[in-house]
Each structure stands twice: as structure tokens, then as C-alpha cells.
Amino acid sequence: MRRAARFWGTAGPALVAVAAIGAAVTVLPGAASAAPVAGGRVAYIGELDGNAELFVVEAAGGAPVRLIADPTSVEAHPSFSPDGTRVVFGSNRAGTDDIWVINLDGTGLTRLTTGDLPSIEPSFSPDGMRIVFTGLKAGNADLYVMDANGKNRKQLTDRSETEYQPTWSPDGKRIAFTSLRDGNGDVYVMDAAGGRATRLTHTLAFDTHAAFSPDGTRIAFSSTISGDPEIWVMGVDGRTPRQLTHDPGFDATPSFSPDGTRIVFDSDRDGEDELYVMTVDGKRTSKLTANDYGDTQADWGVAGPLTPAPATAPEAAPSPAPAVPGLPAIPGLPEVPGIAAPCAPVENVVRELLGQPPIVC
Description:
Elements: E1 26-27, E2 41-48, E3 51-58, E4 65-66, E5 75-80, E6 86-91, E7 98-103, E8 110-111, E9 119-124, E10 130-137, E11 140-147, E12 154-155, E13 163-168, E14 174-179, E15 186-191, E16 197-199, E17 207-212, E18 218-223, E19 230-235, E20 242-243, E21 251-256, E22 262-267, E23 274-279, E24 285-287, E25 295-301, E26 315-316, H1 345-353
Antiparallel strand pairs: 1-4, 2-3, 2-25, 3-4, 5-6, 6-7, 7-8, 8-26, 9-10, 10-11, 11-12, 13-14, 14-15, 15-16, 17-18, 18-19, 19-20, 21-22, 22-23, 23-24
């Protein structure tokens, strides 16, 4: 089981500076999958060679493509642009936790934040104009928003309790997130401009990883209410919660398909972290990846053209990857030894980043 790639691993946010950015899109051996047919692509984090790196796979199944190959850095929390041509993500490749963006063909790797505020968990707004993210300041995690080019940063929450994992509603008017303000992890929603937040989950469990359905009527999330983390879905008002997965493993980071008919999530139910796709009623589930190297943190985007629109940014990467045409098909990756999960992996990684003691079960 691997949980380190889901967040930042065990080293914390202050990591040593890294070398120049490495190769472009990498074609790697990998097993084909047998997922239900669906459109779009899925970005995710895979622990190839024990290191968290950024991958993309066709949602209809097939072999993954590695967008970034840098064994000295850690990538995390990918989010597609609305047109499916870019992926924003967190990385420590410049020596601090920052937000970066890359074109889907492996070009245009650009740093959007510059280290003054450790920044993780980015998410593109539905219009592609803004990015919401978690910022770490003065020993606390709060939510921030900035323009898609990294400018005009604004703080949205300012509380002593940890607030993290932000995601946009499809109309761009609201942001769902996880907060510890009521003593344990719960899902909240607030206006995109900030202000008062409404609590949606009311359990003694950890409710995390919220994701809106494309029509804005439902929110999928991960919860420990039944014991192990499972995927649940509820109305946007928090009512009618319903459990979708029923497995002894760790099921987390749900993301709806662009047409709202399926949900991708990661699970270690078979002993390795892999991506799975299920119908929105939870009745049919199939593996999307079968690579034996730890796949987590999935985001499902539309299948946009591979020639992305130009994007501006304050600072270009020191060694941008050369262009690689298309998304090549691939085949098999070596097995990597697993990493045991902590008792409360979601909250303990955030607590570690903030210098707080871990939750002990």
C-alpha cells in the first residue's frame, strides 16, 4: 500500500533544491486496463521507482503516459484545465512547495508561485481563469485563489484550524473544501469570493476529498464513517449521503467523468494503489490502471486537443521539456515496494506539513 504520493511523502514541505527539469513526456511499459468505456483523460500521481510523478491515461483504458520524469522532485495533486490541454499540480522541484502548470504534450512547464508561500493542492476554475489552492503560512493551512498565470493572489480563509483540499463547483460560484474547524475533517462549501462557510458533513469520521458532479447537484467524497475510507456521494446541500464503495481497502480522491456518469478514484483493495472507475451508483467497478507502482490523486478531464492555447505565467521553468507529439500508447512498469499507510493519512500528512503531532488511533 502506498500513501506517500497522495500528499507530500514524509519529508515535509522544506525539501532540498532540485536539479534542472528532466525529460519530456516519457513512453513507459505498462499494462493495459479494462475500464468501462468513457471519454476524456485522467491525470494522476504514480510512484514510479518510488518517486511521485505526473501521469496521464486515456479514461477509456490503455497505458499511461508520464508527463514529468524527475527523480529528484515530488509531484502531487494534478488538476486539468477546463479545455483538457493543461495540468496544474504541486511540486517541490524548485526547493519549495509551489504550483506549476504543464501542457498535455509535455511542453510549457511553468512555475506559477515563487516560494514565498508554500502552496499545494491546486484546482482550475471552470472558466480556466483562476486557480484555488492550499497555502501554508505561520504554521497553518488556509485557502487562496490566484489568476491562472500566478498573479493577484488572494486569501480566502483565515482560521486557526486547518483548511485544505479546495475544489470548484461547475458554475465557478462555490468552493468545496475540507476543514478541521469542528474538531475532525468535514466537507464545507463557501462562496468563491470567500466568506462564511457551510458545513455539509456532520459525522465523527474524517470526510475529505470533495468533488462536484458536472451538473452541480452532487458531491462525491471519501469518508471513514463505516471504518475504512470509502467513496460516498451526497447532495450539494449535504443531504442524502450514500455509500458507493464497500471494500476493506483505502478508497479516496474521487473525481467525476465529464459526462457525470462515472467516478474515478484510487484504492489499495488489491494490495497496490491503483485507479478504478465505477458507475455513479457504485454498482459496476473496473480497474483503470494495473501498474504495480502506486497510482493515486486522480482528476478526470475532457479530451482536449494536444495543441494547447498559449498560457502566460510570471516565470518560466529553467529547462522546459521539449515537445513530444500526441499521447503515445505504452506498455509495463516494474513493481515498487509499498509504503504503509498511517492511521489517519489525510490529516497526518497535513499535520506534518504544519509541524503538528500526528493523530494516533
